[in-house]
Design goal:
By secondary structure, the chain is mainly beta. Helices cover about 5% and strands about 35% of the residues. It has a 23-stranded parallel sheet that branches. A 16-stranded mixed sheet has the order 1-2-3-4-7-29-32-35-38-41-44-47-50-53-55-57, with helices on one face. Strands 15, 16, 17, 20, 21, 22, 23 and 24 form an eight-stranded antiparallel sheet that branches.
């Protein structure tokens, strides 16, 4: 019979004559770090609790059992992020959990409270403000709130932000909504890309006289899509010639250059503080100006502060659970190395960059979280060894990720995946300006191998960009073996040039399986951009402008990319041992690809799909004899259970089944309830 003893805040169990301690520590906003960390006498900080766990780990006289650090309800404003390293690790038998108290809201905040607001009285400032808001804008001296780090206006990881009543406010800008267009570019050096003409230098002609109001501004920035509708960037203004209506930007200039007709807006302009929710910081004086959407006394004003909240390096068997993480200038949680770390059941919001970044290690995961209002993307996931094709088995599962890409618009998806053998499943993803899921990083396109993207619902993405995919990857023959299956893509129409694709296998992407998905109300649903060995099978396409598109760009406008001398495709291919095991065993199609007319889209298969409404197929003539089409049901009533009710299951009498179509497990798509996610979501939000 086991005997139980209470000793300094943790439970000691005698189990089979071995001493195995099950430990609980407690943290409270009313605690004290001089306390022992019991429920009655809790610690005050996460750092003190971490140190207690670290000391327990170091003991040699105790066979430690599981540890839970219970964080009591309240708001914790951190002055420094929490580092967790190998010495803070748990084990499979004795994991460590940092957990919010059940039924209580526990907020871990990287920002600082701002107090002491009053109406603006400085006559010089009042003169710069629009007359309609002069008696509404309030101001506060940040030094009085103990804030001296003002960050920067646009720099990644350093951008200062203001949050009011838990919502991100917007730095003063013009126009208040949308963009204005570049009237003309007059830089000296021409730049031509794919027949599109622009200039290297940022010399932009604008229309109207609005910038005449900006004469006294200290640091104006522009944010725009300067050459392509799939690439945005911030540009600092060097000067404005209001007579000639020319804005000049500060070098280094945008990578792609600048083009007539592209869109932009100006920001960090005090004179444009004219809409509720806008703010401006005079960095020279440390004075914050704010036009609150409701009385400022009715909510908390928080400025983002720390870059991170949790930094885990080579840390294993640790779970961060049930917390609200917010107001970082960069990424809320970073995980590098280690195994079996989990971010579970958390709300991660209002970050300046990403919610979670995972790199290296194995079997790390983000589970059952709500992630929204991130400045960049949701979860950045990388792990596995490409040389040996060793899988990482990281997971992003059962998360609700929405309203991402709030500041930096393009290539900041809800989930980005690199490496080998990672999983993105059962997520609901919506309301983003560009991609939802991307195989490849922010600044590179190597997505890696053997990933699984399944049971996700994706909608209302690609909202303000063009030539974009809800799921996207491109430009690497060696990034193959991944499967996109049993997902529901709907309402993914892009607004920029080139529209959008639900699944975009761009620029010769090869060896990808697109199986058992449902596509509804999209521009182009599945596009094979000249690649090889792709499979489009057992999908349902409903009311898409174009269900399947296959081109042959490798022998057309992109033929330069397959040239052995300097082509990007052979260059990336040679970065991996594709002619040796395990590569030659796993991907035999790659072994002789350079000798097998590499620009042609060989080996693609399109079979047993259902297409109803919209147009079924576009295919380039060069690709027609190379693609295998079989057993597709086109523009024949597929006998949906309830088309009007958006129930796209097929009734037993559907002719698709006679062609070999297999039932799609629609009941498994999206979120599910478990220990981390205990309630559903309102998808109308």
């Amino acid at each position: 019979m086991n005997k139980r003893f209470i000793y300094t805040g943790f439970l000691v169990l005698f189990l089979s004559s071995s001493l195995c301690a099950v430990t609980e520590y407690f943290v409270s906003t009313s605690g004290n770090d001089a306390n022992p960390g019991t429920e009655a006498r809790p610690f005050a900080t996460l750092h003190r609790a971490r140190n207690a766990v670290r000391q327990l780990n170091a003991r040699k006289d105790v066979v430690r059992g599981p540890v839970t650090v219970w964080i009591q309800g309240g708001t914790y404003y951190l002055s420094r992020h929490l580092n967790l390293s190998s010495e803070d690790s748990g084990t499979k038998a004795a994991p460590i959990v940092y957990r919010g108290q059940v039924g209580q809201e526990v907020r871990i905040v990287a920002g600082r409270l701002v107090k002491g607001f009053g109406l603006v009285t400085d006559p010089k400032i009042l003169k710069r403000l629009d007359s309609s808001v002069r008696n509404k804008v309030v101001c506060a001296d940040l030094k009085a709130s103990g804030i001296s780090d003002y960050g920067q206006v646009t720099a990644r990881g350093k951008r200062l932000e203001l949050f009011f009543r838990d919502e991100p406010m917007r730095i003063a800008r013009w126009p208040n909504e949308g963009y204005v267009k570049v009237v003309e570019v007059i830089g000296e050096t021409p730049k031509v890309i794919q027949s599109k003409k622009g200039t290297v230098e940022g010399e932009l002609i604008y229309s109207g006289d609005r910038p005449k109001r900006w004469a006294d501004e200290q640091e104006i920035w522009l944010h725009g899509y300067w050459f392509w509708d799939w690439a945005d960037a911030f540009e600092k203004v060097a000067s404005i010639d209001t007579g000639k209506r020319v804005i000049s930007t500060v070098p280094p200039y945008n990578h792609y250059g600048y083009r007539k007709g592209q869109r932009y807006y100006a920001l960090n302009v005090l004179a444009e503080l004219d809409q509720p929710g806008e703010w401006y910081l005079d960095r020279a004086k440390g004075i914050l100006y704010f036009l609150p959407p409701s009385p400022v006394s009715g909510g908390k004003v928080i400025l983002s502060g720390l870059p991170y909240l949790f930094v885990l390096k080579d840390c294993s068997w640790v779970t961060i659970r049930g917390l609200v993480l917010e107001a970082t200038r960069s990424t809320a949680v970073t995980i590098s190395g280690g195994t079996e770390t989990k971010i579970a059941g958390c709300t991660i919001r209002n970050t300046g960059s990403w919610a979670v970044h995972i790199s290296g290690g194995t079997k790390n995961s983000v589970l059952g979280c709500d992630i929204y209002n991130t400045g960049e993307g949701g979860v950045s996931l990388s792990g596995g060894d490409r040389k040996t094709l060793t899988r990482a088995e990281h997971r992003v599962e059962n998360n609700h990720i929405h309203h991402f890409g709030r500041i930096y618009k393009t290539n900041r998806p809800a989930v980005t995946v690199c490496g080998v053998g990672n999983h993105v499943s059962h997520n609901v993803i919506h309301d983003g300006p560009h991609n939802a899921i991307k195989l490849g990083g922010v600044s590179h396109i190597i997505g890696g191998n053997d990933h699984t993207i399944e049971f996700n619902e994706i909608y209302n993405v690609c909202r303000e960009t063009g030539d974009v995919g809800a799921f996207y990857m491109g430009r690497d023959w060696s990034s193959r073996g991944s499967i996109v299956r049993h997902n529901y893509f709907h309402d993914t129409k892009g607004t920029g040039h080139g529209g959008s694709m639900a699944v975009y296998l761009d620029d010769l992407t090869s060896g990808i399986s697109v199986v058992g998905n449902i596509f509804h109300r999209g521009d182009r649903a599945a596009l094979i951009g000249g690649g090889r060995d792709n499979l489009v099978e057992n999908n349902i396409f409903v009311d898409c402008n174009l269900s399947v598109s296959i081109d042959a760009r490798g022998v057309g406008w992109a033929k330069h990319s397959v040239k052995e001398d300097g082509g990007v495709m052979p260059r990336y291919l040679r970065n991996v041992p594709y002619k040796q095991p395990p590569w030659s065993d796993r991907y035999p199609e790659l072994v002789n690809v350079l000798e097998d007319s590499p620009g042609l889209p060989k080996g693609n298969i399109v079979r047993r799909n259902v297409s109803f409404g919209g147009k079924w197929l576009y295919i380039r003539n060069e690709a027609k004899p190379l693609v295998k089409f079989e057993d597709n049901l086109i523009d024949v009533d597929p006998c949906f259970v309830n088309l009007q009710g958006l129930d796209f299951r097929l009734r037993p009498e559907s002719k698709a089944f006679a062609l070999g179509f297999k039932r799609i497990p629609v009941e498994k798509i999206g979120l599910y309830l478990d220990e981390y996610r205990t309630k559903g979501i309102d998808q109308k939000k």
